[in-house]
Amino acid sequence: MVKSNLDLIILRLLKSKPLWGYEINMAIRERFKVYLSAGTLYPLLHSLEDAGRIQGVWESEKGRGRRIYRITENGSEFLSAGEKMTAELSKLMQTTQDEARLS
Question: What is the pLDDT of residues 23-49, one digit of tens each?
């Protein structure tokens, strides 16, 4: 379930504050007990950036460059729509489960 909704999870994390890739990975690991390889996380971040849902900016900290990601207006709209759809799906699944129990 986590991997199929990674785009929404990342956008939700970035809604709170800008993060760099490692911080995103650690937040997902801590909350969902899922470790994402660099080969999974960074292509997804690039695709979200290409779609205009996030913006990455290089910042230097102590001589080391890090790409800090921020959610865009487009990303916020996509997140809202995704959260609404997820809530509707969850409600539908609960209704279906309740109906199965009554049968």
Answer: 999 999 999 998 899 999 999 999 999
Domain residues for 88? 3-102
H or E element, residue 70: strand 64-71
Could you tell me the CATH number of the domain that includes residue 84? 1.10.10.10
Q: How far is CA 98 from CA 34, 44, 49, 74, 91, in A?
A: 30, 36, 40, 36, 10
Cβ neighbours for 13, distance < 8 A, ≥ 6 positions apart: 19, 24, 27, 28
DSSP 30-60: HHH--PPPHHHHHHHHHHHHHTTSEEEEEEE
Rounded distance, CA 71 to CA 55, Å? 6
Evaluate if residue 1 carries a pLDDT over 70.
Answer: no
